[in-house]
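User: hey, got a sec? need Succinyl-CoA:3-ketoacid-coenzyme A transferase folded
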Amino acid sequence: MARPRSAILSASVQLSHRWAVPHARRQYSVATAAIASARLTPYLRRSYRCYATEAAAKAARGGSKVFKSADEAVADLKDGDVVLSAGFGLCGVAETLIQAIHKKGLKDLTAVSNNAGSGDHGLALLTRDGRLSRIILSYLGSNKELEKQYLTGKIAVELCPQGTLAERLRAAGAGIPAFYTATGGKTFVETGEIPVRFTPEAILEKGNPKETRIFNGKSYIMETALPGDVAILRAWKVDEAGNCVFKYTTKTYAGLMAKAARIAIVEAENIVPIGSIDPDSVNLPGIFIDRIVPATAAKHFEVLKIAPPKEDPTSGKPSTLDARNRIARRAAKELRDGYYVNLGVGIPTLAASYLPENTKVWLQSENGILGMGGYPATEEEADPDLINAGKETVTLLPGAATFDSAESFGMIRGGHVDVSILGAFQVSASGDLANYMIPGRVFKGMGGAMDLVSNPEQTKIVVATEHVDKKGRSKIVQDCKLPLTGKGVVSTIITDLAVFQVDRTKGGLTLTEVAEGVDVETVKAKTDAEFAVADDLKTF
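Assistant: Yep! Here you go:
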């Protein structure tokens, strides 16, 4: 039975009250009654918002695609356009074109991107000067100005899981109006409880609840295609016919956005004559590119990470394990030789350091790497076109591959990844996971986390986290109080004190291991959930 809209409205208002900046929270109570009395629309909607003009005219064919400058290429863009901005973090961002759009003075734009830029780079340049009225993205990242504008109602923010964002773009480019996905099911993404725009006084625009449908006994939500007026992307090499070659992790959204837009503009580091690119090396055929401009803006590192010197006594595995490394060492035992593995940021990333010499795994990074290596040895070896999901510079191992975000999240949702190890704010006795938001404190977006837990039947989900938070509160709870990343998705919980196995079918925890020097009573005292104790309780 569908959840009553009045209940959803109430939950959303309460949630937004918690999200508000502290000095503004007291003003929400007045607005709640007014919003609740407003006319409500049906829960299941039969029409869907489209961000680009339907049946918009295609870009004209004929003539040269090469423009002398980015200013010329964006001359006919207009206020209110939907701009699909490729890149991941600052990697692959069309900086030259963004600067040209800023210079032109366009306003009231809707931007679609994975991230929102950083500092004065990427979309942060347009955010800073109030050029965007709406942004659709999966992760706010380090754009503090965007977060500030969202919390004060100056900009509308639509959060979309990273893989779903890629698939919505792919659908738009392929003429598919909508599709079903398990990503975001049984979360605020499904119910529409993340406000799109609000002020300290009221919610101005609610999120859209999603249609659901059961396939083979599993619930899926419907997502709609996401077309744009113009796509802006950056490529390493482009010939005069528009055939593009992308380097490493710049592939993420570039091709997807070019296909989904009425006009696609690429800034090229190298513009070459037709025939200069081997057909087998073309990543994006010229049919999807309308305009080509020279890339004149510099590329930037968002997080320049260099491997510590081997002789550094602090490098490698520490001789004395702190809590985080103790968790990571135990988490490494979940990995088997030949596994395809995705490691979340923080503690999960450390697990790779504790693999035995005879255990080799393929690390998958959701921004488009399979076979990810460590950090570069020197700054000279670092490449701004090659980063991990945490925006850090990395290297590739022999046999590695790079690919776009649709390919990457197809691997993830399709269950081709064997194990995913993630951090958590809370994890429940029934395997519910909350790890992307703490209302009122942490608001960054879900990134790829909801996609990573969308197929727990085929990809084992392991949580690696401290047992308690900084205030001493248990992260292992009977029921999650924070917004969920996924419901009933976690199979194993590893903390600095204990290891639990989760019965995802019936619900319930079983304590199977305790850390050396820790007894069951200590675990019980620090756990806000009921659990059974295995007969063959082990120590790690």
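Quick note: Residues 1-50 have pLDDT under 50 and may be disordered. Let me know if you need anything else on Succinyl-CoA:3-ketoacid-coenzyme A transferase.
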